[in-house]
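Hi F.,

I've been meaning to write this up properly since the lab meeting, where we talked about keeping a consistent format for the predictions we share between groups. The idea is simple: the sequence comes first, exactly as it goes in, then the structure tokens exactly as they come out, then a line or two of notes. No screenshots and no reformatting. I'm using this chain as the first example so we have something concrete to point to.
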Amino acid sequence: MKGYSIEFERENYPRARLEGVDASYKDLSEVCGRIRGKDAEWAKNFLSLVSAGKLPVLYKGHNKKLGHRRELGGKKGRYPKKAAAAVLKVLMSAIANGRSNGMGEKYKIVHAAANKKNIYGRVAPKGRWARSDYETSRIEIMLEPLEAIPKGVEVVPPQKEEPKKEAKAEKAKEEKKEVAK
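Output, unedited:
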């Protein structure tokens, strides 16, 4: 599908993405790498613990001169709270998209990725030569429903019942009568 870094044929995958995230794309990519291929409920619990600072994330890349963590069995890791909160937000959005399209309640994370997006130059004040760039990122998550959808059946979102206009008009008339009394 256009705009995603993964090619897929079926439209029966709930997905979500967030552009212009103010977080390190390196941290985001490590967090996405830890939840890829996992169950969505497990990922929600994991991301909430990481964003609270109670659980570290294993860093496979971007880990030069990084301290080891006892919780990870001596492997390198960090506590990327900001990145975990952003990924959790996108994951919740993807789950909500799946529910609203009638795809069930249980999902597996098929694709989770983070990329570097725009770089905006920032100039230091008072005529200094130093410059620090403001980098934004993007997150995309795609889920697969664990409850099988039969082949040849289109997934149709549940229709919302709209209140009838006549019922609204009757309520308005009754309210006017009560006010007049």
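Notes:
The helical segments are 25-35, 40-51, 81-100, 165-180.
The chain has a mean pLDDT of 86.

If this format works for you, I'll send the rest the same way.

G.
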